[in-house]
Amino acid sequence: MSGSAVVLVSGGLDSATALAVARAEGYACHALSFDYGQRHRRELDSARRVASALGSREHLILRLDFRAIGGSALTGDLPVPKGRSEAAIGAGIPATYVPARNTIFLAHALAWAEVLGAQDIVIGVNALDYSGYPDCRPEYIEAFERMANLATRAGVEGTSRFTIHAPLIRLTKADIVRRGRDLGVDFALTWSCYEPEPDGRACGCCDSCLLRKKGFAEAGLEDPLPTAR
Hints:
By secondary structure, this protein is α/β, with parallel strands linked by helices. It has one domain: Rossmann fold (3-Layer(aba) Sandwich), CATH 3.40.50. The chain is built from eight helices and five strands. The protein has helices at residues 13-24, 42-53, 86-89, 101-116, 138-148, 153-157, 173-182, 207-219, and strands spanning 4-8, 28-35, 58-63, 120-122, 163-165. The protein has a five-stranded parallel beta sheet, with helices on both faces. Strand 2 (28-35), helix 2 and strand 3 form a beta-alpha-beta unit. The longest helix has 16 residues, at 101-116. It is globular, with a radius of gyration of 17 Å. 41% of the residues are buried.
């Protein structure tokens, strides 16, 4: 066994695969999700199902109010970009970027890890097929890990050496889909869409839906989730 790990679980296919990787590597996984004022609660329902299906030791959902800060199409009244080309998705930082989201999430994960006596934190960020978010890059993860060991009692006293694991960061979306399949992830439990249709189906044309579609197509697999388009 590799000890305990705090795993950030959003309900999407990336975080589900990251959780499956951590479980396969022998970690006792403590899943952490956030109810942060996002446009819909569908992803939280998926996070609960994913955490349960992949055998998390426990699943903590913390409430934060990002809507009070705003600045994002996911937490405010800005329109969600739809129907963008692959080149457009990969260029610049889109309106769906939530200011400092991964920094805030990882800070909470770090606090819980310190309480649990866990030295490992797992996050499913990806720097290849993604929407240009600055907090998904390898240099960001490396910087946060350095900070984690400077900013905690466990790090300063030397009782723990925190490691931030980003096992998917250099994989394509197709690679992630294949890895998840091989590890037994039930993708029907996951959710990626930023703005679901009134009937509950994924919109099929937001950046996240398009990247998911690209991943399944290039992996030669069928996505079990229905989409409106």
